[in-house]
Amino acid sequence: MSRYIAVIDQGTTSTRCILFDHAGRAGAMTQMEHRQFYPRPGWVEHDPLEIWQNVQTVVSKALQEAKTETGDIAALAVTNQRETLVAWDQSTGNPIYPAIVWQDTRSVEICDQLSLEGGRDRFRVRTGLPIATYFSGPKLQWLLENIEGARIKAERGELLCGTIDSWLVWNLTGGVNGGVHVTDATNASRTLLMNIETLAWDDDLLAAMNVPPAALPAIHSSSEIYGLATGVLAGVPVAGILGDQQAALFGQTGFDRGEAKNTYGTGCFLLLNTGSNPVHSRHGLITTVAYQLGDTPPVFALEGSIAYAGALVQWLRDNLGLIKTAAEVEDLANSVEDNGGIYIVPAFSGLFAPYWRSDARGIIIGLTPYADKGHFARAALEATAYQTRDIVDAMRQETGMDLDLLKVDGGMVVNETLMQFLSDILGIPIARPIVTETTALGAAYAAGLAVGFWADIGELRGLWRKDKEWQPRMARETRDYLYSGWNKAVKHTFGWLDQV
Ligand SMILES: Nc1ncnc2c1ncn2[C@@H]1O[C@H](COP(=O)(O)OP(=O)(O)O)[C@@H](O)[C@H]1O
Ligand SMILES: O=P(O)(O)OC[C@H](O)CO
Questions:
Q1: pTM
Q2: Bridge pairing between strands 406-409 and 430-433
Q3: CATH 3.30.420.40 fits 4-245, yes or no
Q4: Pairing verdict, β 430-433 and 466-470
């Protein structure tokens, strides 16, 4: 039997390749960063060819590191930054424009226009999403309207468009020599173009954004054989595709209704499995496909997306110079007993869930001469916990379900001070697994199930291993008092921009 499932984890800042063995342990891991381009305020781009090159490099290096060969790889999975759009020429394989990244806000006027009739929630029942620049459909409309020749090519079926998974799987399966143009339902559910009930592109949505169907990939499940790889992994079945946040839920074995995870990286994304029916949010959350295995019915999730979590720590480091490394924030925060009355609300690009206020901007509030840099560090960490509380409360209001445990992963979860405070502010236990590369692990599980490397999700559940758990130990009155301060601070960020 082959020893590994290979995973390509293509994220916003870097690309990793990880080989997982049958016990779900990483046998090799390689990583490369790619460039971020900010050509104008609010624009964020990546070079799709650089990303494809990095993918090939990290895969080759991972095989070398594990001293293994193609025959040892049972299947290949792709997990990816979501919503980011790539458009390329079918005959040459060349992108016609840089990738337009999920953080890019250039489609703001298109979104305003789409909202004129029916408001921001015009497509919510059909797609699970509010109209926002975050999603791929308005980005594609912008590209077709602004890049010369794009629309004509798209109408003739000569332009292939899709999220990063589509771009990579097309290249991995041969590119101009027969690459398959596919995506999975989790990625398609982030476009504003897919109907969340039928899991198919929706004619009315395509018409609203003037998108020719010929340009779009075929929507498949998250776990099936899409094609065979070429190149260094020649002949290996490409058998799993999941958006990265859904992959993390799968990797945390959040298979059942009521199970949740939060991934603490640059931003943070809390997903709650809501089972076989999409729950349409009235509390500022997003409805998304969590996973679909082969021809079984899809499973849905509610998502709370937060734009600034670890990025606020980076800001303390890079812009204020308060710390030299992200890890130093913990000692600095522990140099004081509490936040000294200070709150930082990192609404640097407005507030995402559950507020969706693009007129908000960041604040530091509650300053007195007593405040020192330790309080700043503490307030920065606390902001991540309070933002999580906002989402957890919205989830409770939405579903009536009380979370009894939150599984966490991502770069910030090494910070034990934050983990304890999170448990205190939420009033529930926080559990960190031994394998914190849960995004890649979840994609490995999807591909492994498709090729019989693992038998079923019951077997996968048995692979989850706890590293550490934090229990709430703060008095209820203290928790309520601290959180009420956060709520006041958030209100002060609203309406800072006069016009959005
Ligand atoms: N010890 C720490 N305490 C708090 N934040 C940290 C710590 N170590 C790393 N981070 C933050 O975690 C983030 C990186 O996490 P990662 O999961 O690699 O992010 P991404 O996948 O979004 O690139 C950075 O924003 C960094 O500031
Ligand atoms: O690549 P990450 O880990 O920053 O995740 C980005 C999300 O998928 C955006 O929706």
A1: 0.93
A2: parallel
A3: yes
A4: antiparallel
